[in-house]
Every structure is written in C-alpha cells, then in structure tokens.
Amino acid sequence: MKVVWTLFILFLLMGCTHSPPSAAKDRVENRGTNKENWWDKLPREAWKKFERLDVADDWFEVYQITPNIVAIYEPGQFEEVISYLILGQERALLWDTGTGIGNIKQVVNQLTDLDITVLNSHTHYDHVGGNHQFENIYNIATTFTKKNMKGKPHDIAKEFVEGDWIWKSTPADFHKDTYESKPFTPTHWIKHGDQIDLGGIELTVLHTPGHTPDAICLLDSANRLLFSGDTFYPAPLYAHFGESSVDTYLESAKLLATYQDSVDYLLPSHNEPWVPSDYLGKMAAAFQMIKDGNKEYVETDGAKEYAFDGFSILVN
Ligand SMILES: [Zn+2]
After folding, report:
1. Of 36, 38, 46, 47, which is closest to residue 19 (Cα–Cα)?
2. Which entry of 54, 121, 136, 218 is 20 to 30 Å from 211 by CA?
C-alpha cells in the first residue's frame, strides 16, 4: 500500500512540473504559429529512451543516440532545435550549431578532442547560432546561404528570445538585450553527392531544397540513418516562408522517398531525435496531394496548414 501511495504522490508531483504528455496529437501541434505555453508539451516522450549526458552548460540537454552520435537539444527555446555531433575515428562533424543562446563550443569540447567540422542543415538562425565559434565550416553555395552568413542584427534576432519564445532560464553570459545571429565564414563549399569521411563513418550530402534553397540532408548509408534537418521532423513542416518553395520541396521529398528502404531512422533537427524512415514516403505523398489540390486545409495565422498523420505542412 505504501508503495502505491508513494507512486501516487510521485505522479502528482510530476503533474505539477509539466502537463502529462497526451499522445500523438502533440506531435503535430508544436512548431505551429501559436507559441502560447508550447513548453507544456515537454518533456517529450521520445527522449526518454536515450541516455542523458552531463555537460557544463545546462541550457542544453545532451543525449547519446548511438555510440557515434550525440544529440545537443535546446528545449528551452521555442524552436527546440537539435544539433548533432557525429564522431568518427579521425574527426567529428557537428551538424548545426543551435541558436547561439548557450555555448555549444564548450559542450562539444567536453564531448570530444577530435577536430570539428561544422556542416549546416541550412542557414536559418536556429541552426547557425554557434557557427562563429568554429574554424571549419561547410555550407552549400546558394545566394540564400551567402546572405545568411552575414548574420542577423539584434533588431531582427531579438524576436526569437522575447516573450513566449523562451521559458527556461538562460545561461549567465547570455544577454537578451544584445542577442544577435553572429556572422560566420564558410571555409568549404559542398554540393549534392559529396562524401564526407570522418574515419569509419562516411556521410553523403543530399541537396534537398524546399524549406530553404540551401536545405540539405545527410545520409549515413552504412548505419542506415538520415539526418533530415528541417526537411522532415514530426511536427508542422515550414514550406510557407518567402525562401520556401512547395514545388521544390515536393521534388526533394520524392528524392528522399527513394531512400526510405535504405535507412531505418531519421534524425530530425527539431523536437525529437529518432523517427522511423517511412515518414519519407508519407511526406512525398503529402506534398503531392497538396500540389494536386486533393487535400483540405485550415488557415493558421495566414498560412494554410495541411494535416497528415504525425506531421503537417504549412504553405502560403
Ligand atoms: Zn529552418
């Protein structure tokens, strides 16, 4: 009986700190346009099966995903962005550098002594925030990328750290009043089909424009994994920005669908780190339905939101 009561009290205590997760519906809600109390969805169930690693900066939650892959997650800010450190035998690749709110370099230094190459899934502010801290940065050479490498001044970037965008306390050396997206200098231009050898791990770059012109995915054939960036995550996909293109997104989704049977899991850049690869086919079918006008939508803050099983698509 005592055990039952202890469990009950524990259950109540847990309920006080966050709302209980309410299944699949939550998976498509966050990353929509409504930011009110978005953090009620945390912590996400998906992270619980991975070992959490202790790091100096608790702005980040860091998880061991596979023996060679570490996820560096920022659940304190609305984007819930995930950067990944991929460790080879000779060097390491950092797939994105987060919002720049916490010190990602310090975290990475704690995790490895290997030389680091940064590769951005694309150059939206929440993926390049720590780029300026690194010397070796790979990007794809689009006009969009070249504009974003100049950074974003405080006047624009301040929006992302105000009001409901942040719920967690920020690191002591972070200052909301001066937050900006710092400029960075790419040191190497990559292109579709390029191979990156980390020693024991070989990665292939897939150019998958649509969300942005410079959106890429990263294929690890041997381990049957695909880093899907912002091209796929289990939440509203953003195809509604000025820099987005639904037609191009459809072509990229079709290309990715051809990899569905060669990979088992996707490692997306937002919300959760490990989702089944059959979403690739579902995403291609979804974009095709939108293009063919065969799908109902709802208006969400000026964008059209098309809902599918486990994700949705925002279109202008
Ligand atoms: Zn993005």
Report:
1. 38
2. 136
Type and span of the H or E element at 246: helix 246-257
- Cα 238 from chain centroid (whole Å): 12
Q: Which amino acid is at 264?
A: D
Instruction: Give backbone dihedrals phi and psi of 126, rounded to 5 degrees, phi first.
Output: -80, 5
- Which residues are in the CB-under-5-Å shell of ion ligand 1? 124, 230
Residue 247 alpha carbon to ligand 1 centre in Å? 17
Question: Both tokens of residue 293?
Answer: 């006008």
Contact (Cβ atoms closer than 8 angstroms) between residue 85 and residue 118: no
Strands (E), 141-241: 188-190, 195-197, 202-207, 216-220, 225-229, 236-239
pLDDT of 51 reads 98
What's the 6 CA to ligand 1 centre distance in angstroms? 44
CA 314 to ligand 1 center in whole angstroms: 13
- 29-315 domain in CATH 3.30.420.40? no
Residues of the chain with pLDDT below 70 are: 1-35
Q: What is the pLDDT of residue 164?
A: 86
Query: What pTM, to 2 d.p., does this model score?
Result: 0.89
Q: According to the model, what pLDDT value does residue 12 have?
A: 36
Q: Separation of 212 CA from ligand 1 center, angstroms?
A: 7
Query: Contact at 8 Å (CB) between 283 and 310?
Result: no
Q: How far is CA 294 from CA 195, 222, 287, 289, in A?
A: 38, 37, 10, 5
Task: Provide the residue type at 298 as one letter.
Answer: V
Query: Residue 86: beta bridge partners?
Result: 69, 93
